Queue: 3 jobs
Job 1
Amino acid sequence: MVKIVFVGSSERRTKADLLITGCFSGQDLDRALLALEPEFSMGAKTAVKRHRFSGKFGETLASFGLKFREASEAMLLGLGPRDKFFKLCARKTAGNLVKAVRERKAGRVRILLESFVSPEVSKESLADLFTETILLGTYDFRKYKRSADAEPQQPIIFEFMVSRERDCAPLKRISEKARKTADGVIFARDLVNEPANVVNPQTLAAAARKMCKAEGIQCRVLGIKEMEKLKMGGILGVSQGSLTPPALILMEYGKKFASRGTVCLIGKGVTFDTGGLSLKPAGGMEKMKYDMAGSAAVLGALKASASLGLKRHIVGLVPAVENNISNNPQRPGDIIRMFNGKTVEVLNTDAEGRLILADALAFSERFKPGMIVDIATLTGMCAATFADQAIGLMGTDSDLVEKVKAAGQESGERCWELPLWDEYRPLIQGKQSDLKNIGGSNGGTITAGMFLKEFVPAKTPWAHLDIAGTAWCETARHDCLFGSTGVGVRLFLKLLSQKD
Ligand code: BES
Ligand code: MN
Ligand code: ZN
């Protein structure tokens, strides 16, 4: 449990366990520290000299060996040069802050907010970025650990101190908004971290229904019968080998804002990807519970959009299936007919994401979207290309692609564009069908994008996000300890909040 509060420096306060102040390289510490407590300032100055603390980014200096009134322990956090302290640095700094707090098991941390202000990062941005990153950086999926019941985690209070008490109220409002964003990310993370024996297409649909009901979002779930009627050969084909029936989850928020144009968000919801008959190797297959991270991003973004009251008409579509093998799975070589009538030779049953997304993309036409963005853990090749550092971005509309790039930059969920040139089209040309579901051995991320493009409603701006590399965090980073990252939620919220 994390509490975030704002206090003015003249307010009465209880002693903290840890006091943190930011420190730019080359900065004169005196003024910031002296205002607070003379002893503190003196101790810090001696320590800075003795330990040659220079304020390099990420550098820390703790325990000056003096007793303070303000806190049991004090710490300086290096921020690097002030004019190079950008928003991403602020996010990483919040990560360092969380790390320090965790290591010390501090319960009440007091942070001098203004010590982190730079030309690029205002107090207001700090309230936003720090709140978001602290909540995400302390998130831990512990529900299946017995110790979690035995010893409930102690609450941590992050107390941001500002010089003027009247700044507290507006900063608090910003922080509360950031918490709603973080709640959306956490909702997505929880769904992805749940194992596939818990989250399957049916339980995912139930979770969507429950969330939508709580947030006042409209929700409808199409079952297998309806999809058969609609001839959604892609979703039905992939789902054929699973004992859990598929679901197509349709969510709609903010219809009254439709005059601004409808945004369709489509998320890949493969609750487990065995590869089907084109079976994946055993090593690493357990990770394929995160093959529904795209769907979780759509659900999380809708939840946060509703709780923030965004003025946009948003339609979320989630095709949910399990790619598994039973006594009648889809076979390599099967030719299926998709919702839009095109036929596809399924040369590899492990290239299933594009099959279910294709039906959802084509189906989205009935919502008359002004733009469509899909998000999917689509290709291993994308993870091979960008590792965990960038989302693979492709699209048909340069305007939308630029908007998505900007949203990625703003949210810290950075995207990198790959081309969808017509010259790639022959790679997915079918021999006995219109299309085949795999390209050659090269350009796998692009050929997957080329395949999807075939199903995008005519004249509709569309962008595709491949999050195979960014949806899972293997080693701790500033905003995620381990496991699902909830990638996409923050990017979507920035995208949806952009002005026209
Ligand atoms: N879900 C996988 C992609 C994936 C791989 C995501 C690793 C995250 C980590 C997708 O369904 C898949 O299996 N893609 C194949 C496509 C190939 C058969 C053309 C792949 O990437 O190997
Ligand atoms: Mn697959
Ligand atoms: Zn998959």
Note: Residues 182-497 form a domain with the Aminopeptidase fold (CATH 3.40.630.10).
Job 2
Amino acid sequence: MGRLDEVAAALAADAEAIGLYRTELLYLTAPDLPTEDEQFEVYRAMLERMGGKAATVRTFDDGGNRPVLPFKNKTEPNPVLGYRGIRMSLGRPSFFRTQLRALLRASAYGSLRVMFPMISHLDELEEVLSALKHIKKELRRERTPFDEKMPIGVNIEVPAAALMSAALAPKVDFLSIGINDLIQFTLAIDRSNPDLAHLYHQYHPAVLHLVRTTVQAAHQNGIPCTLCGEAPGQEAVLPLMLGLGVDGFSTSPNLVLSARRVLNNCSYRECQNLADEVLALNSSAEVEHRLSRAVHRPLQSI
Ligand code: PEP
Ligand code: MG
């Protein structure tokens, strides 16, 4: 989600948490960049409305098919591969600092988790950690309250990050796979191009192997790995991802209850066997065929 008024829908659907709050939508309607106080008020209101349930907020990921910040070069030849996500935040330290301060201040009002988009280099994460350390020191000095243990995570959306997840995981509290972009960048297929939709496939074995690699890295480091994006809205994906070891799913509010019904009816052991079987397959079509057999049988016996 990306708007405060969507929180009610998540709660009405009995979501356990907000798995992804996209902050770039904050400036979709505003002509100017939101100030620290304006951002703080939104994050605080969201946490208060959640009443103690966790919310994972992602720092700005502007560009591609999203709003374009005033200071960005609007004529980038490949905006989806361009100056966006963490690259832009690190390239604009005062802009990033404003958002981090607002988030940390809001963390005193609920259960806030923060994740960073489009990380592809370990150095980027190191820079984020150092900015956070600096701002925490500043807030302590000002005696501004914040959650000292606010969990932070990496949004795994780029194959490089998935492949390097064993190096990223020890430095954070969680990993969250952004499957929309992970598919896009693994298969080199523009996710918004309708002419290529038939090739944009969550069941491509390369994508599934990257999910497995990421989950294993998280678990070896004792942290959870969740999955967000459009794919968890499709029922057949859930037993497979559960079997691959994914610890939590984020989907749009209207799909929460049906996703929970599917997951509640799964046997974890059977899902693990299904995942092992599927990882040995070589094409999306074979995977899809295997999964269709699984969902056409009673879910308890996939
Ligand atoms: C993703 O890439 O899967 C994701 C959840 O983020 P977005 O759709 O905002 O790119
Ligand atoms: Mg993404």
Note: The first helix runs from residue 7 to 12.
Job 3
Amino acid sequence: MIQQRFGVLTSGGDCPGLNAVLYSIVGAAEKLGAEVLGFHDGFEGLLLPDSFTKLTAANTSGILKTGGTILGTTSRGHFCGKVTHGRKTEVPAPFVQQASQTCRDLGLDALIAIGGDGSMTIALQLYQAGFPIIGVPKTIDNDLEATSMTFGFDSAVACATDALDRLHTTAASHKRIILLQVMGRHAGWIALWSGLAGGADIILIPEIPFELEKIVDEIQRRTSQGNKSTMIVVAEGAKPMNGKESYKVNTRGEWQLGGIGEMLCQKIEKKTGQETRLCVLGHLQRGGAPTTLDRILGIRFGVKAVELALEKKFGTMVSYQDGIIRDVPLAHAVHRLKCVPPDDQIIEAAKGIGIFFGSSSL
Ligand code: F6P
């Protein structure tokens, strides 16, 4: 019987599949006789006394299929590794020491951190400060380096595709142009995949700056060929050629992406004279049950994380590459984001069926 004790936390924005990973970690650990403590609200749980729950097969039964995270999460607080607008911060030394003391007091043999780019940046800093840490990659945006897919992405794409299916019928009935704004700050994976699966006519992603005039030309070309409606998917981080992303400052004084759909909607309507409507999908993409693929990916990630914890392969992150679950150094995941390459095969397929990306250069 292995007498080990592992800590686990979920950090950053929530996404479908987090509970599947927790369910899997508990299942794999219990099978080996190891104990799992789940910290509340991400890394913040390491700062407060008793801010954890002992996770067991009994109290995690049934969570596999549920959205969100039973542990709670935050993308703010003392450990905020990445502030909006790309600014990075270091976790101040006193919080690192306090968290380290918590791990020692509780006799943790390993800490499994489930999160995206910001959380993996924090995990790397903690590892460099001596934490026995293992990362599990999550984000609906699928923009984390060193893994070809994160769990949550497939569920978000399914949600956006479903939205497009619904918008098509109303757009066609009213002969309107409809824009669907989806998440994706720096990477357009959700817009690209859902746009292709959902039959979009135009897809605008951050990696391919758009030209408004070319979009208008394309809509007019479609209209002249007898198409009565046009469906456009736009990622929230899409920007015009030689222009910037649309940001607004929220009530906390933080820069927040938003407004690109609204801006385009007004300009397209004015220039085409055709009624144009906007649907901002927002957090619907992050909620709800994980798809089958995300459940399987989450379970496989959880099992691998426990394996790495037992092998004491700290400072690593579980990763999915070419159908295989493996481990990579945490440092490989955090230095840059995984954006859509202009020659991506999905882009090629989309262009192959006439989808327009808003730029004459493609
Ligand atoms: O999870 C990533 C993401 O969904 C981004 O695409 C989006 O901009 C951001 O999170 C919004 O997060 P929140 O509203 O929780 O700050």
Note: The CA atoms of residues 258 and 348 lie 28 Å apart.
